[in-house]
Amino acid sequence: MTVKFLSIKVLALALMTFGCTKTSKKTAKFETPAFSKEINLEGTPIGPKNAFMRTRKAILINNFIIVLDTKSTPYSISIVDLHNDNTMYHIAHNGQGPSEFISAWDIRPDVIQKNSFWTLDATSQSYSKYVLDSIFAGNLKPCKRIKARNPMLRMDDFVVTDKHIICNGPISCAQLAFLSLDNGLLIRESERIPIEVKYEKKVSNEILALAYVSRMGIKPDLSRIAIGTSMGDYLSIYDSSGVRLKTIRTPERLEPIFEVSSNGHWGYTDESRYGYLDLACSDRYIYAQYGGKTHDGDIKYTSKYINVYTWDGEPVVRLVLDRYVLGICVDEERNSLYALEIFANQPIIKYTLPNLLKL
Hints:
Elements: H1 2-18, E1 21-22, E2 38-40, E3 44-46, E4 55-61, E5 64-69, E6 75-81, E7 84-94, E8 100-101, E9 104-109, E10 116-121, E11 126-131, H2 132-136, E12 144-147, E13 158-160, E14 164-168, E15 176-180, E16 186-189, H3 205-211, E17 214-218, E18 224-229, E19 235-239, E20 244-248, E21 258-260, E22 266-268, E23 276-281, E24 285-290, E25 303-310, E26 315-325, E27 328-331, E28 336-340, E29 348-352
Parallel strand pairs: 2-26, 7-8
Antiparallel strand pairs: 1-21, 3-29, 4-5, 5-6, 6-7, 9-10, 10-11, 11-12, 13-14, 14-15, 15-16, 17-18, 18-19, 19-20, 21-22, 23-24, 24-25, 25-26, 27-28, 28-29
């Protein structure tokens, strides 16, 4: 994610040199619920030290936390035993072999086979499934690999169901795309990305789709999907078939701010502010990591805020962490929230959920 934004920032500066026209906006229509409760949390670093370079994403499977590190060489995915901080397993050696990646970009648990997970190689547009027991036995090859069959997809975030890989929609500006779990073919798309603004000058679907790229999460029973824009503050809830049920926003009502040149190229400006950086979902709540800071590289692409909503889109509480993080996962059964402190010597941070959120 950050690499993309950094390159886009450079592009934006170049476009300004060529004399771009900034888009403008008009009125709004979606709900803006406010949080009546805000709770501060203090975290404790856990896990190995000096083992990571640039952590981006974490997921929980049983007693293990799986960490994606976009800068680590030669391995980009590490598995840490929460019962023994010093026990680690590694996969995803950077390369193009059967058990390697060109660029591991995202990871997601398999909601059906509970001891397995998926990873996205955005460069090759492929999804690979790994089983923990096989990794522990020394077999680092994925048990399944699926290549997306649509080059127009926005390869950024995804979730997995029993039948589909669901990702950001294609540059037709659909919010979601449903890919076959058998062969990677595009089965269907959802409706268009909900956008409140009216641009005075025509903006192509391709630019809008890229500007409103989103982070995703799924309810464990697979009945609901949450998706929040990375730039701007749209948080939408869909049913399992891709029908949008609700869209909510923050009182800041952020939009991605970008410029478009006369030849159709585009880029975010430094006035753009980050929205949802990651989503973690339980049966009860959507935990939405929210930024709000301006677009300015690695350090700004972090936040202290976790907005917690019900699956009906009602605000529950805003959690304020004691440090800036990127990437969250939640274990409500153990009353724990885990986050990744970017560039830290010991980046895995454990928080205790407040009584309000405990089972």
